């Protein structure tokens, strides 16, 4: 895992080693070890960290510069679903209304 990306994601989400560790069920010592040992950790821990920090595993691993997790149907907000439904019905003005809150 790229330590710089881990640290950026932690900073952006307002987490330190202790709070991240609590979120993923690890110890803060584990998180500090990952940071100090050039990101070496298990795949399972990379996935847990990515989910907790709401970034993609590809971003943490340096395979993508886009930190956004891959869009899935099960992680869309109600508003996002409504916009997509309007677009599928070919109602772009309705989608714009939803986006703008009007």
H/E series: HHHHHHH
SS-based class: mainly alpha
Q: Helical content, roughly?
A: 55-70%
Instruction: Give the terminus-to-terminus CA distance.
Output: 42 Å
**What would you call the shape?**
elongated
Text of the CATH class of the largest domain: Mainly Alpha
CATH architectural group of the largest domain: Orthogonal Bundle
CATH topology of the largest domain: 434 Repressor (Amino-terminal Domain)
Unreliable stretches (pLDDT < 50, length at least 5) are none
How many domain modules? 2
Strand content: under 5%
According to DSSP, the number of beta strands is: 0
The average pLDDT is 93
Count of DSSP-assigned helices: 7
Main sheet attributes: strand count, strand direction, barrel closure:
none
The CATH homologous superfamily of the largest domain: lambda repressor-like DNA-binding domains
Name the quaternary structure. Answer: single chain
Radius of gyration: 17 Å
């Amino acid at each position: 895992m790229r330590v710089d990306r881990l640290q950026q994601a932690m900073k952006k989400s307002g987490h330190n080693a202790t709070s991240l560790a609590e979120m993923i069920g690890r110890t803060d010592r584990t998180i500090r070890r990952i940071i100090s040992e050039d990101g070496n950790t298990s795949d399972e821990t990379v996935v847990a960290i990515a989910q907790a920090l709401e970034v993609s595993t590809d971003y943490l691993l340096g395979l993508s510069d886009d930190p956004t997790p891959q869009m899935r149907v099960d992680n869309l907000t109600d508003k996002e679903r409504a916009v997509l439904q309007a677009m599928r019905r070919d109602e772009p003005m309705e989608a714009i209304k939803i986006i703008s809150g009007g």
